[in-house]
Amino acid sequence: MTMERGASPLSRGRRPTIKDVAEAAGVSRSTVSRALTGSGYAADDVRERVQRAAAELGYVPDVMARTLKQQISRSIGVIVSDLRNSFYADLAAGANGEARSRGYTMVLADTSLSADAESEAAEAFVALRVAGVIVTPNSPKVSTYLGAHGIPVIEVDRQFAPGVTDGVVVGNRVGAREATTHLVELGHRRIALFIDETNWTTGHERYQGYSEALAMGGAAVVPELVVSSGWDVADSHRRALDMLRRPDRPTAVFAANNVLAEGVWRAIAELGLRVPEDVSLVAFDDAPWMSMVSPMVTAVAQDTMGLGAAAVRRLHERLDAPDGESLTTVLAVRLVVRGSTGSCPALP
Amino acid sequence: MTMERGASPLSRGRRPTIKDVAEAAGVSRSTVSRALTGSGYAADDVRERVQRAAAELGYVPDVMARTLKQQISRSIGVIVSDLRNSFYADLAAGANGEARSRGYTMVLADTSLSADAESEAAEAFVALRVAGVIVTPNSPKVSTYLGAHGIPVIEVDRQFAPGVTDGVVVGNRVGAREATTHLVELGHRRIALFIDETNWTTGHERYQGYSEALAMGGAAVVPELVVSSGWDVADSHRRALDMLRRPDRPTAVFAANNVLAEGVWRAIAELGLRVPEDVSLVAFDDAPWMSMVSPMVTAVAQDTMGLGAAAVRRLHERLDAPDGESLTTVLAVRLVVRGSTGSCPALP
DNA sequence: GATCACTGTGGGAACGATGCCATATCGGTT
DNA sequence: AACCGATATGGCATCGTTCCCACAGTGATC
Fold first, then answer.
1. Is the CB of A36 under 7 A from strand D?
2. Which of A60, B278, B289, B309 could form a disulfide bond with B273, CB atoms 3.0-4.6 angstroms apart?
3. Residue A340 backbone dihedrals phi, psi, to 5 degrees
């Protein structure tokens, strides 16, 4: 960033173009281009003169024009569901860092959980001719649409088209199994599951992990203990209240994402239940608040920034090898045991 | 990779251009442009034919080319300090929503608190020829640089160049005064201030508010109770430990942002102090965790998404009137009294 | 002294879209 | 019959950049 002084040549309306630099340096536009980008011949003295002229004029190449000519974009699109959720914010932060270090800019779209906004964003990215798109998809539509337009897509966190589209996800099944097994080992058998949905991709896998762990503990899935409540604190809060008020309430709850965990936590607090004496809680995704509360919440921690960074890396591999086999990267998760999980109250 | 070479008309590799649409519809490029954008004459049947051809080809206009020709960009740059901090994430979410509703795309740069990254981002935005930039600045440099390049800047949350650059901030002084007055009214006099810095813009104003409230309560600022610890949880945590271990520890703490509040909260928990019996805490910026912990933290709540949205609105006003007087918008804050603040222990 | 390789530079055609201007057609008026 | 305004369309320059190609100069080799 070169700073300009007072009456800079910039301050008069029109932005300097390569032509202005060429005239100032007394060479042709071609030579300026070569001198500044470093591709092709340029005598040392000429190069220096051009660079000085460019600096004096405050010339900054127009990325639009360059991209138009080269037909190669240096920006990536990122579509996330909800920036206000720390998970997506961290994801975006991770993607941003990796993109920056590779000289890419990041165009971000927060869909606020709206399907329309997701499609809109995809269209905008096609129009912008981004090099690729990273998305936490809510349906297969985005990937299909972008794929049809020849834009590489990396599905993150959830993956609707494994084998067709690249993906970067975490070990959902293993993580959910570890979390639930942890509860089983503490003696719990009536373990509730709060989850957004159980049919697709990530939700399905977490449900599988939960169910496997129960089976290994000799218990079965009790349908009334499985709550599918979407991505909504209010709803999960209400349904947690209902469930925890019942006399045959579960002794432990596994909340499959940080939003649902928040609803459950609020319900527990509201009912004055003691954690973990009355009810244990374990969450998938270690949100910041979970280590602020008391007791701290046991959680399956994901390297969320790493997820974003890995997605950008995967995208670049894809750009380098457009026809390579599509790949799903699975990142490890880690169960962080904290105070919110304890022995089942029914047992000694 | 399977996705290419489907049955779609797109899959010839090359993306369809306006020329392809023109040929398919049997008209000229000009006519296509007029028919699709709706500016200028186009017979109904021709318009329809063109639209159908465009739809069939999956034609999406190239924003780059359009922008280059029109010299008017429909994207804005947003520079925030740290997306992982809920404050900045909410700000970005607010800006994104408002931008989307106005048909703008958002290019986001997270500087990770690095000054270099801030400059880099500014440069990238000049190169991208964005319509304007919204920034939570860490120095006056960004605004100066972008201003010199004729790019409108809106400074958000902090403002280094009031009267020169537009700004959108909150009532820092009033908010800090209310927070501190609340403590004073509860009988506190030894009130510590944790703040990032006290010399510029937002930090200075919050310090002023704190100091005014103390004065109104008949107390003076005690330098050793004012901790400037930057944007760093670890540092504020350590210094809070030091301060709260002393026998003459403060009876209340005002943490001037959510990061510092986190450090203080952790220190309080670590020392086993009771809140608010042993020490009261009030924070500036109501982060999500503050209503999850027990007791909940009294905080000065800002409409953070509103801040981002207001910045985008201000930017558009600026674009409509490039030479208008520069303006600083001040958004109201609201003290949310919760359980973390109580009567001073020394008094009855 | 002709040929060649190499260095260095400029001219000009793209890239994909827009929008000014010229032109064409047509019903209606002078 | 000439002219008009309105409607409708195409031709072409243009935005800022890159990069292919032509060309000029310079030594060195045959």
1. yes
2. B278
3. -80, -5
